[in-house]
Design goal:
The structure is a single chain. With 289 residues, this protein is mostly helical. It is built from 14 helices and no strands. The chain is globular, with a radius of gyration of 20 Å. The termini are far apart.
Length: 289
């Protein structure tokens, strides 16, 4: 268990290295320190562990702006998008693998899983269609506003993707550390399987990653709690493992990771923002925007 948590923190360090490269490309006049970027990143991860809908991403942006006032939010925000580009392709490849071996649940299974957060959308397809249409309409309006904001705003926003205009630096400074972080991510799952006496293999670690990926598609609960437990029992249905053991593994791993993220994240927030109050952080973020 300790080894899994240690590797988890190491994985976060490599994620911070990649984000620092992106930030350095977007703000060439600023030299962000790696420990500062790591602190902001872990603070965001810690908040995301207890607050749904990616609230921790706002904390990441605020802490970086708090430490480096030259960094504007219009440029900071898209750096988080650039930081997840490799995740999209790697996560997609793992999902394709899961689809190819036939372990992904079908629509009928999703609608019957009692612990899946987004079962409402599958049981009420017409309502889900209306919600999706409203969201698409809101995105279209936001895009039109983006176009109307003028060249200055678009230029600041585009700077957040500056790293993509330097392919060698992108491969060396972003893709490489993130590839290492993905290897460590599977290693974390492997050692968590061992810690809870579930058969540890690369195949089972990848299945756990599929569960994590599906749970983050709709982050209605912190850390995907509920969704993961419903899915992990289903995805491991072909193995001679009891449901109680799988639930103990999933819940235990979630608790261990959440506690570690909270502890490190709270320490980083306390050191960087001099407060642990979520309300004060939101007020400060508003005042600095």
């Amino acid at each position: 268990l300790g080894l899994a948590l240690g590797i988890h923190l190491g994985r976060m360090w490599f994620r911070a290295i990649a984000w620092r490269t992106i930030l350095s490309a977007s703000f060439p006049d600023v030299k962000p320190r790696l420990r500062t970027v790591f602190g902001a990143y872990m603070a965001g991860v810690g908040v995301n562990s207890v607050i749904p809908a990616r609230g921790g991403d706002l904390v990441k942006l605020y802490l970086m702006r708090h430490r480096y006032p030259e960094m504007v939010y219009a440029t900071l925000a898209p750096t988080l998008i650039a930081e997840t580009l490799l995740d999209f392709f790697v996560g997609g490849a793992i999902m394709i693998w899961a689809l190819a071996i036939g372990v992904l649940p079908t629509h009928e299974v999703y609608s019957r899983l009692p612990t899946v957060d987004w079962r409402f959308l599958f049981r009420h397809e017409h309502v889900a269609g209306i919600v999706i249409a409203i969201l698409l309409g809101a995105l279209a309006v936001a895009f039109l506003i983006f176009l109307e904001k003028g060249d200055a705003f678009r230029a600041r926003f585009g700077r957040g993707f500056a790293i993509l205009r330097d392919p060698p630096r992108f491969l060396r400074g972003v893709v490489l550390p993130q590839a290492i972080s993905w290897v460590l991510r599977i290693a974390v799952l492997f050692y968590f399987l061992r810690a809870f006496d579930v058969h540890a293999s690369i195949h089972n670690a990848l299945l756990c990653q599929v569960v994590d990926s599906l749970a983050t598609l709709f982050p209605a609960t912190p850390g995907g709690a509920g969704t993961k437990q419903g899915l992990i029992v289903f995805l491991f249905r072909g193995q001679a493992l009891s449901a109680s053991l799988l639930l103990a593994f999933s819940v235990g791993m979630n608790i261990a990771v959440t506690v570690a993220n909270l502890a490190v994240g709270a320490l980083c927030i306390a050191l960087m923002a001099r407060t642990l109050s979520w309300k004060r952080l939101r007020i400060a973020a508003r005042e600095s925007s």
